[in-house]
Structures are given as structure tokens and as C-alpha cells.
Amino acid sequence: MKVDKKIEDLLKQVADHFDQEDRAVRERQLRDWRELKLLWEGFSRIWFSEVAHDWRIDESANGSDNDQAFYDKPINIFRAYLESIIAALSVTVPGIKCFPDDAENPLDMTTAKAGDKIALLISRHNNVSLLWLHALYIICTEGLVACYSYPKEDEKYGTYEVDKIEEDEEEAYVCPSCNARIADEVMTSTLEGEFNPGDEQIPLHDAIINQETKLCPECAALLDPNLQKSKLIIERIVGKTKKPKSRICMECYGGLYVKVPNYAMKQADIPYLMFSYETHYSNVLARYSDLRNKLSVNGKIAAGGMYDPYEQQARLSIQYRGEYPINNVTVRNCWLRPSAFSVLQEEDAKLLREKYPDGAKVILINDCYADSCNENLDDHWTILSDPMSDYIHKRPMGSLLVNVQEITNDIISLALQTIEHGISQTFADPGVLNFDQYGRTEVLPGGVYPAVAKSGKALGEGFFETRTATLSQEVLPFFQQIQSLGQTASGALPSLFGGQIEGSKTASEYSMSRAQALQRLQNVWKMQTMWWKDIYGKAIPMYIQELKDDERSVEEDEKGNFINVFVRMAELEGKIGRIELEANENLPMTWSQRKDTYMKLLEAQNPLILEALTSPENIKNLAEAIGLDDFVVPGQADVDKQHEEIRLLINSEPIQQPPDDEQMMMAIEQGQDPTQLPPIEVPSIDIDYDLDNHQIESETLRSYLVSTAGRLLKIENPPGYQNCLLHYKAHLEAIKAKMMEEAQMQMMMQPQQGPGKDPEKPGGSNQPLSESANVSTAE
User: Fold this and answer.
1) Beta-ladder partners of 223
2) Distance (Å, rounded) from C-alpha 635 to C-alpha 696?
3) Of 37, 81, 605, 683, which is least surrounded by CB within 10 A?
4) CA-CA distances (angstroms) from residue 708 to 563, 564, 699, 712?
């Protein structure tokens, strides 16, 4: 947005004021976060330079001038423990469920259902699984995590058509009362004779005929006969034009990139938010071409050096080890609340509040103003709130493992030195042993070598063997204790990543231990899921606001079929009440936990549970959970066949056939004209009476027709829905016919019963009695 120079200076003054706030605290935070980033990448031999204001990496391990570097072989347990925590919390991403504002309002119900589809689209567009992982990584290494949601237009997302309008200037009569355009004929023509005028038309006709007064055809106001034409801007539709579609993008950043005040206890308390990053100056000039002169030095484009070395070095890639990019500029995006303008004089603050009533977003390139707009901070940023911290800023989880990593490095270095120095050295008197002759002698096992003892002394007194270095017996228990303390402090217990559990021997004990380990992470999971819900509470309304045309996406249903899912503009006329998590707050189940649960349900031998697990809808999930990739599901081929027929039925219409002979005979018997009978509708794809499994295929078709896709098909494609329904009824008729055939076959197989014959015995009562028969009744 183009603004005058005064507005630019005032916005920059406010942004610079908050940029310098808590400067010493900010530098200390950057130092700590940078250290954790280096430890994550495996650089544990680092030291902080007060001259460079950055962490220096000890590169002596690559050279031969330092003997100590030979023993520095650190093992990165810092990252191993944190990755175990991240893996346990990223098994799945919680789903989103939209609730209507009024459950009795059908518009709100429709909009809430459309909100569920929008949530799935936003998740797919942003690869939320990777976004969720990145957020956990920031929690471990920086603590503060904020999500930036914003709309982005791009032709790669698709296009939609809008009317192309041109404006022309014309002269026309305009009513002074309602500002409606008046045709020239109204001002120039006289009143035509009205059929059968009554007394009520006397005042109107007198004004028009006798007084030559004109009336506005819109509001019936009296017009001045001497009314002059006015110039109007007329809009005309001259064609169609295409515009790019928008998507909602979501990005997560930590404290290295986002600055908020340290005194803030919640997001509502922050008067500003600054999002800064470095990029090549060519990317900036591509967007803000008017900055070319400001970034030029003697006619040559230059980045202008490092605007803030402390900030830029903290955000620098780990690949730069003492070097710095020379063509980068710092882009500062500053969101300022209206209350932040109060740092200026009252008159200047009032001017900014009038210009930016919802708050301002100011973009600064290094120290140069680039752009600004009216934008609300809370509509685009969502900061994670930790209920176990009094303020927004908190210590990252990785800070608990820094000392553990350093102690581990020292113990490993000490152990390597002890092992090498465990080989003793022997010193000999040259007067006792001739070193030149010994050096020319081949060393043989059990060999005899000449040696002359000193007079009056034993031969052994001419040799001295150094004592070997031995590792203290307390080092190994101390090392194990440090690892145990590190696991307890971070929450990365052995059962979480499949490590050995002391005293655990059975699967049930391991499962119980893992459940206890996951309970430790329940707090992190809860606060992140609440943060995730708040993000979608802003992203879904933003998507609805940016939607200009119906959106279509291809989804896969639970049967494995591809269907079109639409988000229509007509579905968004209602109001969404709130947005909640689709799943509960418990941690997600891993594959092994799912397998154990399924096996326990199968072992229970409960008929209702077995029926549910072996249903066509769940048998595929059961096979996947157990891990039987080559498991053949009975009836799956029939289900697949029916789904293929459903796709063909949807894309065709029922076939109209004339009535058959039986119906015509019935019509004649009832005294009706058989030629007036309506045609019969049959499905475009007939069933195979002998080959089809009618029970499975009818259930598959019924499940589709009552599903969301089937209900939508009934509204949008009635002929296709009717075609599927006729095919379903044909399967039901086949089932009835099969049952009647089976009943007739059973009746034919039963023998005819004669008098005095027992139907339960093949020969009736004429058969001889066995020895064990009860004959007491014969008496």
C-alpha cells in the first residue's frame, strides 16, 4: 500500500522502537538457541567467541597439531533422545471437526460439514505431517513455536473465471432523490392516454399534462423539467478473464525468527510480533523493484552488509563455519497492534490508528521501508501456549540434555585415552642391553638375547616398566547413572524407543513400561493439539473468505474408490460455531500397539467383536494391523467388482424398456389399455444371476448409496443415483429368487411320510427294534 513519507517514517519509528526492546535478553536467547542447533547437528566441541558474538566450532579434530583431538569422538545422544520424543508424538496428526453455530439451522449444519472438507484440503495443501514434525523440532530446540497462516494466490493452484468489466463515461439524466438513471424518453415524451383513468389519478395527471412535470420511474419523485444531464461511469461486461486461485499456507517458526516480548504471558499481551529472515537481495528486488536505488552503492547493487550481525549469525545455516553470505539482506515483517502506536506522540498515534484501525503489517528490508498494510496480528499468527510456564517464552526441552551431552563426551574421551595408555612402556640401561645389536636381531617367541648385568647388581635392576593407566571402577556406574538421569530429565525413557528395560522380561511388562513413558509426554501432546486446533480456527475462515469458486478434490473412500468431493460456494452461507479436535486427547497408537489391541480382541472370542472385526469394512484394517501383506480377504474381489460397476452406473442412466408380456396380460385382465403402460426402467448394467455374490454386492452398493458420496450423488446426479438403486434392487430380487430355489430343493429332498412311519427314521416303524430300545410301552 502506497503511503506518504510521513506515514513511512512513523511506522519505521515504531518498528525500530520495539526492535531494540529487551536487546540484552534477546542476545542471550539467541546464544542459547544457537547452541542447541549446533548440538542437534552433532557439533559438541564448540565455544562462544565474545569477539565474533557467535559459537565457534573446534576444527582441531581434523588436524594433527592437537593430540587431545585424537581422543575426541563424541556420540550425539542429544539428538537421539529428542528424536525418540518427536517420533512418539508424531505417529499421527490430530484431525479437525467443525461444529455448527446453531444445530437447528440447516445452513449452519451444511457449512460445518463443508468446514470438515476444507480442513482436509488445508492439511493436504500444507503437508501437515511434515509441519507437525517441524513444530516438535522447534519445541525441542527453541521452546517458542508460532504458526503463520496466510493466503497465497498462484496459477499452479488453478484458475477461475470472472467477468471482464470495462468502464465508459456517458451523459444521462439522474434522479436527485434516488440517484437512479432516467431514460431520455422520460424527459422528452408526454403522458400517453391511460385507459379508464379514475379520480385518484387527477393530481398526477394534472402535474404531468398541465404543469409539464416529469416523474422518476423508480421513486415517483417530481423531476425538474429543466433537469440537465450528468456524467456517469457505466460498467459493461465485455468478456471473461481468468484469475489464480488461493490456498491457505501454514508455516512454523521458532524464537530465532520470531521476536515477541518476554514479559508477555499470553498472545493477547504482545503489542508486536517481528518475523525476520535472510534472503538474497534479488528476491527482494523481484517484489519491491523501487528499492533498487536504496540498495545501490555507486550504481552497483549491494546487499548493504549485515543489518544485525547478532541476529543474522544466530539464524545462519550450520554449513557456514566462520564464513558469511555477502549478498543477503534481512527482511523484517513487523505486525503492530493499534496499541503499539502509543509510543509516538498522541497526534502521530491518532494518525496511524486512523490509517490502520486493525493494526499494521510493516515490511522493512534491512533499514529501508518497503511496504505496509492494514492487518490484524491475531488473524495470521498462533503462538503455542504452555500451561506449565508463566510466560510465552520458555526453556526448550533440549536444554535439559546439554550437560548430559558434555559429560558423555568427557567420559568417552577419558576412556579412549585410558585404553591407549594401558599399554605399559619399558626402559632399559644401555649398559645392560645393547640396543644396536638388539635392533638387528629377529624377535622370536622364546628367543634368548645377550645382556650383561652391572657389577654387584641383578639383571632386573637394569630395566624399569611404567605403571599402566587403569580406568576407575566408579566411571562406568557414573556413566550409566548420567544416562539414566538424562532419560529421566528429558522423558526419553528406554521403553519409548525400544531400549533395554532393567528387570523387564515379559511383553506385558514392556507394554506397561511404554505406557508409563508415554504418560510423561502427555502434557506436550495436549498443549500442541490445542495449539493445532487454534490454527485451524483461523485457517478455515480464511479459506472461506478467499474461496471464489467451487473447489473440487479427489478423495479415496474406505473402500478404496476414488470419488470427487466438492466444496461449493452455496454450502458456505451458514456459520461455523467452533472447531474441535476430531480425536481424543490421548497419544496416538503406534503400529505395534494397534496389533496388540487387535490380537487381544480376537483372543476374547466375543461373537459381537468377531463379527465387527471380520466385516467387509474392517477386514482390510485387520490384515494391515496384523501385518499380513499377502492375506487374501474372502469376498474382496466381489467388493472390487461392485465398485467398478458403481463407477459405470454413475456415468450412465437407466434404460427405458417397453412392458413385458406378463405386465401387458395383467393390464388386459384389469381392463387397462396395454399400450398406455409406462416404460420399465432397468439398470444400464445388468447383474449376473449365476456368477455374482448377490449378498456381498448388494451390501457394498447399499453402503455406498447411504454414504456421504451417495447422498451427494442423489442431489447432483439423480439419473446416476436411480441407476445404482435399480441395480441394487436387481440384486435383492436375485437373493429372493435364490432363497425360493433353495426352499424348493429342500422340499424335494425330503421323503414323503406314509401312515405309521417315523419321519426321523429311514424305514419308519417297520424297522426292527434294537436291543437297547425301550419296549416297556409295548406291555
Assistant:
1) 214
2) 7
3) 605
4) 11, 11, 16, 6
